[in-house]
Amino acid sequence: MKKVCVITGGSSGIGLSIVKLFVEHNYQVFNLDLSPCAIGEFRQCDVTNVEQVSEIIANIAQQHTIDVLISNAGIHFSATIENTSEAELDNVFNINVKGAYAAIKAVLPSMKANKNGAIILMSSDQALVAKHNSFAYNLSKSALASIAKTTALDYAAFNIRANAVCPGTIETPLYHQAIDNYCQKSGADKNAVHEEEAKLQPLQRLGQPEEVAELVLFLASDNAKFITGSLQVIDGGYTAQ
Ligand code: NAP
After folding, report:
1. Is the C-beta atom of 75 inside 6 A of ligand 1?
2. What share of the chain has pLDDT > 90, as a percent?
3. How far apart are the C-alpha atoms of 230 and 93, rounded to whole Å?
4. Which CDD domains does this chain map to (predicted)?
5. What is residue 182's predicted lDDT score, i.e. its pLDDT?
6. Which of 116, 130, 150, 189 is a good FRET partner for 143, with 20 to 30 A between their CA atoms?
7. Domain boundaries, the chain
């Protein structure tokens, strides 16, 4: 029987690479995202809507045993604390943190009943180090690292593991959007900024979404059955500096 994986934000970037890899590895994948996706089983969903997330996941759980949850949907937002309005803070928090809360809460009854489950939260290297001009995003990614730890402790007795993946700079549409916004504001040249970004990484290049997907596949598998409550860095050495 196929293992079942629920992912949020699987229609683009890192999430899409995860969906492709999990399908290749014979998982049945349910992708909760705003935008449709041809791979996996798409469920239109806004993760900020806790009731909607809960209903969609309860429906899946009625027909399947959910083995894996990957809470991945997220947005980036660049600003200092002074330049972050209350509405902008709420928006980042609602998508990045409340979305994870909604998805985890919704899969737990099924995972508890089966005494089995792997939960993976897409955090960031920014849970470990701060970056300039990134108040709300840093805050949200640190919160996800905390959720991984508390969930790991509270549900270890049910054989449910929870881990956070902390990618460095990964070349995805989100990354390109962030660079485009910066270049528009500053007038900087995109190619030059892109090269500078690569040079900031000890491995002298950006990460690729497929590389993050491989780590997530490992964490979801039985090969990682003693790993829980951890923050798994995949950042080309950035946070080692
Ligand atoms: P991406 O290409 O923008 O993909 C994010 C996906 O999440 C998109 O499909 C997006 O849908 C979806 N999404 C956004 N808001 C949603 C909502 N309210 N409900 C449901 N789905 C929603 O970004 P990515 O770079 O792959 O990032 C994926 C995750 O990795 C994020 O949590 C991000 O913070 C984290 N991360 C990324 C990097 C990086 O350098 N790229 C580094 C560290 C961590 P739409 O396209 O329709 O909006």
Report:
1. yes
2. 98
3. 22
4. SDR_c
5. 87
6. 116
7. 4-168+208-235, 171-206
